[in-house]
Write a structure and sequence with these properties.
Strand content: 35-45%
Order of helices and strands: EEEEEEEEEEEEEEH
Strand order of the largest sheet: 1-4-13-6-7-8-9
Helix content: under 10%
Number of helices: 1
Distance between the termini: 28 Å
Low-confidence stretches: none
Number of strands: 14
Largest sheet: 7 strands, antiparallel
Shape: globular
Structural class: mainly beta
Oligomer: single chain
Mean pLDDT: 89
Length: 196
């Protein structure tokens, strides 16, 4: 079962009340448990909307964790989305090796931004607002079954409270058990950009 730890319902990107979650950057996070939906997947797509109140720093101890299924390093992780102050960092792992992509933010603090990854049998892609921003065709072949739980807003904070949590708002986290095409990613961004 999902466990909400301090995060609070708030207005989403379309102005609808109680449709997104706000995180305070101190100790808020949501724990979705150790889901089997990531177990050894060769194809996976993950997309979400993010609004930052503050960015993270430029070291692993100060990154802002947005969505993770991760331990202290890639050998205990499935994937993670981080912010390091001026760009996205996202990694997928098979527990023995990992592939990492980076892309600059498209928006400023306090503005909504859609970000997503697609893993397709060894090709790993990072999208920002429906546009391909980084790709690696020699990525890992499948995502590991990490023993860590899926979390929104946190990663290593539970082992070391000095590590930060996410400070901002998350909306519409979508996880697919297949690789979305570039056309589908663009269409998803266009659809979700429209008022509901």
């Amino acid at each position: 079962d999902d466990t909400v730890n301090g995060a609070t319902l708030t207005i989403d990107r379309h102005g609808q009340a109680n449709e997104a979650y706000s995180f305070d950057g101190v100790d808020d996070y949501i724990d979705f448990g150790d889901s089997a939906i990531f177990d050894n997947r060769e194809s996976q797509s993950i997309f979400l909307w993010v609004k930052f109140v503050s960015y993270g720093g430029n070291s692993s101890a100060t990154y802002s964790p947005v969505l993770t299924k991760a331990g202290v390093n890639y050998t205990s992780s499935s994937f993670y989305f981080f912010d390091n102050g001026n760009s996205w960092i996202t990694t997928v792992s098979d527990l023995s090796s990992a592939t990492t992509l980076n892309a600059d933010h498209n928006v400023s603090l306090g503005q909504w931004e859609q970000v997503g990854i697609v893993l397709n049998s060894g090709e790993f892609s990072l999208y920002v607002e429906g546009t391909l921003r980084s790709t690696d065709s020699s990525a890992i072949s499948s995502i590991a079954n990490s023993p860590s739980s899926l979390k929104a807003g946190a990663w290593y904070h539970l082992q070391n409270p000095s590590y930060p949590t996410f400070n901002g708002t998350l909306d519409d986290i979508r996880i697919y058990d297949r690789a979305l095409s570039a056309t589908e990613v663009s269409a998803l961004y266009s659809l979700e950009s429209q008022p509901e």
